[in-house]
Design brief:
mainly alpha
């Protein structure tokens, strides 16, 4: 365990900054849907592939082998290399001249970001005692939502600035449109963060066996013995990911199409809500999970998940379909709060459920389901509903309500069913 509270929280702070950066780089695309569609001639379904499935597939497929490496090698160095790689890939998005080049660059972003969270979860778990782990991981995970919000706020400001310049000529690169320049501006600062990560000290692994394991094959016997607990956790929280990722991917377009907001105004309004209410949601959920665990409720993470799903269901079926902007934004505040309520408890649950030697791999498995189902299927399902069920891009709000409601209901049922199985698995592992 990393010695001393200041050292532990410094590690969390630096990793959180890296996580913020990762979500700025992956989320900035949502503000640029309009100009990208206009310049590259793509459909909503193709945009959903750029935002979700193409990113998520490579993010998740490479996450497991990279996590296996993180359970055996220096996690700090793996993260630093990943940050540098995805930052360069984000900048390369700005050089794309067609859909396929942009798709390839987005895949590169996913490959680089696969190095971060499994190794970060493992480093934090080795730095904090179990009774403080939910809060520590909640602080780290709020970086995702701060990053999403800042991507919209900063992106809005950058878009407003570069739009005035029109087409920009750069040496060796040539003419760049405003949306392309945005990718360059947000991508390149990540190289500085990659160097900053090298100031961290690699924590001692909590288990003597940790560092010698780290594979799906080694984890599989534990999963097979406690398959109900793993199934409820991995699929239930992934369904909550469908809610969040659908909202984040398509709400800017909904604000533009239904209410006439430009990218700058949409980014500022939605980004401010995300920074405030997503951050409040994840911190509150992490605090509640720690409190319940201290009171002896071992199923606390899944209890928090059920509350999150219920809140998403209550607000998610109404917020995207109201026809008054101020009412919609008012309903989005609690919707965003509950959509992130369980995101600190979810990874913390696996850190105590999985054997210590396989925590990074277990985290990668969690991210595999979260991103394939949440990031890959969520935005794609919304786009498919808009293109093929409603057949009208103005109906994106109804598509959001449909996907949000169905995913939240399924998550509530699955997480509720899994509570006793999760408690039993923890008891058997002690």
């Amino acid at each position: 365990m990393t010695s001393g509270a200041p050292a532990r929280w410094y590690l969390v702070a630096v990793l959180t900054v890296a996580y913020v950066l990762s979500f700025i780089d992956r989320s900035i695309l949502t503000l640029l849907v309009g100009p990208i569609k206009a310049d590259l001639g793509v459909t909503d379904t193709q945009v959903s592939l750029l935002h979700g499935l193409a990113f998520a597939v490579f993010y998740t497929l490479l996450g497991i082998p990279i996590a296996t490496l993180a359970d055996r090698r220096n996690r700090r160095n793996i993260i630093a290399i990943g940050v540098a790689f995805w930052s360069l890939a984000t900048a390369i998005c700005g050089l794309a001249r067609n859909f396929w080049e942009l798709l390839a660059a987005r895949i590169g972003v996913g490959v680089g970001e696969a190095a971060l969270s499994p190794a970060a979860y493992s480093m934090i778990a080795d730095s904090f005692p179990p009774e403080r782990l939910n809060r520590a991981l909640s602080v780290y995970t709020l970086g995702a939502f701060a990053g999403m919000g800042l991507a919209l706020i900063i992106g809005a400001a950058v878009i407003a600035e570069v739009a005035q310049a029109g087409v920009t000529e750069l040496p060796l690169v040539g003419a760049l449109r405003p949306w392309q320049l945005v990718f360059l501006v947000v991508g390149l600062p990540g190289l500085v963060v990659a160097l900053w990560l090298l100031t961290l000290t690699e924590p001692l692994r909590r288990s003597p066996a940790a560092g010698s394991g780290g594979s799906i094959a080694a984890l599989w016997p534990h999963i097979r013995r406690h398959w109900q607990a793993y199934a409820a956790h991995l699929i239930g929280f992934a369904l909550l990911g469908m809610v969040l990722n659908s909202l984040l991917a398509w709400t800017p377009a909904h604000l533009a199409r239904s209410f006439g907001l430009g990218p700058a105004e949409a980014g500022l309004r939605l980004g401010s809500l995300i920074v405030v209410f997503c951050t409040a949601g994840i911190l509150t959920g992490g605090w509640l999970a720690d409190r319940w665990q201290a009171a002896g409720r071992s199923d606390a993470p899944l209890r928090v998940g059920v509350i999150s799903a219920a809140g998403c269901l209550a607000f998610g079926v109404f917020a995207p379909v109201v026809d008054t902007l101020d009412v919609m934004l008012a309903l989005y505040a609690p919707l965003l709060f509950f959509s992130t309520f369980a995101y600190g408890a979810a990874p913390a649950a696996l850190q105590v459920l999985a054997p210590a030697a396989n925590r990074a791999v277990a985290s990668a498995l969690y991210l595999f389901f979260l991103n394939i189902i949440g990031m890959g299927i969520g935005p794609l399902a919304t786009a498919l509903a808009t293109d093929y069920i409603f057949g009208n891009e103005l109906a994106v709000g109804r598509s959001l309500a449909l996907v949000t409601g169905a995913a939240a209901l399924a998550a509530a049922l699955l997480l509720g069913w899994g509570r006793r199985h999760f408690s039993a698995a923890l008891a058997a592992s002690r």
